[in-house]
Amino acid sequence: MILSMTGYAVANRELAGGLLSVELRAVNHRFLDLTLRMPDELRVLENQLRERLAGRVSRGKLECRIGFSTRAETQPKLQLNTILLQQLLVLTHEARAIAPQAGELRMGELLRWPGVLITDSVSPDALQATAMELLDIALDDFTATRGREGEKLAASMIERLDKIDAIVAEVQPRLPAIVAAYDDKIKQRLIDALGSLDDDRVRQEVALFAQKIDIAEEITRLGTHTKEVRRILKQGGAVGKRLDFLMQELHREANTLGAKSAASETSQASLELKVLIEQMREQVQNIE
Q: Are 76 and 17 spatial neighbours (Cβ–Cβ below 8 Å)?
């Protein structure tokens, strides 16, 4: 499957105290440029998040946002840990028996003791586990979105490859007629200049011209390159860099075809080829 580098996905889940969300968005880029934004409570997951994202995305400017938004109606409720409080009171009594001069623990100090006040909010471990789960859900949706866009890009490129092949197939049979027309032109020029026809000179000029405008190699390479592009599109995967290289090769052959042009037909063909190749090249910039 061909994947576009442009994509968006979001996954949400209601938790005690608020809403946890994982958002992914990406645009095209030469390499993988990953940005992570998350609450401090989830910073411990940064390495895991980077590994998970890099395992599913190979190119693109990718931003991953993880947010936890609290809501007034879902504010966590405080509860008293009576068991721990009773233990603290017993220990305080035993300690005063050993050190009578020590002061008593005040209520504020007791309530600030770790674990005395508990909430019904999600624990850090549960929050981290849920964040990773939501990341996988978002990545699945993200990949599906990029796949749909990639299919459109591949279909558009195949349509242009068909047009390139049609132009090449139309130009190739015309080459003998172009050489013959130049043969007649050279003969007429020699007659006008010399008043006679030098067959050897004509044959020499025509042979040189035929060699100069021989575009058989360019035509063959264009066909080879379009076949390779089709094969890569069918194969799928992270193929953007290979496709970009092939676009450069196609453009080089189209330029050479124009440079060797000896007739309006081949000049027009070269121009049309370069337009189609440039259109494909723009599309390749969005392929992973």
A: yes
For residue 46 the two structure tokens come to 């940064």
CB atoms near residue 11 (< 10 Å):
20
DSSP string across 183-229: HHHHHHHHHHHHSS--HHHHHHHHHHHHHHT--HHHHHHHHHHHHHH
The crossing angle, in degrees rounded to 10, of helices 264-284 and 124-171 is 170
Closest CA to 26 of 68, 56, 48: 56
Low-confidence residues in the chain, pLDDT < 70: 71-79, 115-122, 179, 182-183, 186-187, 189-199, 201-214, 262
For residue 7, report the phi and psi dihedrals to the nearest 5 degrees: -170, 165
Q: Please calculate the CA angle 173-217-189 and round it to the nearest 5 degrees.
A: 60
Cβ(236)–Cβ(2) below 8 Å: yes
Alpha carbon 102 to chain centroid, angstroms = 67
d(CA 172, CA 152): 31
Summarize pLDDT for 235-244 with one digit per residue, the tens.
998 899 999 9
Residue 112 has a pLDDT of 76
Please return the burial class of 40, using the count of CB atoms within 10 Å of its CB with bins 0-12, 13-18 and 19+: exposed
Query: For the segment 112-138, what is each residue's pLDDT rounded down to a tens digit?
Result: 777 665 555 567 788 899 999 999 999
The answer to whether 213 and 262 have CB atoms below 8 angstroms apart is yes
Domain boundaries, the chain: 7-74+127-143, 78-119, 147-284
pTM: 0.72
8 A C-beta contact, residue 45 and residue 128 = yes
Angle at 215 between CA 209 and CA 216, to 5 degrees: 120
**CATH number listed for the domain at residues 7-74+127-143:** 3.30.230
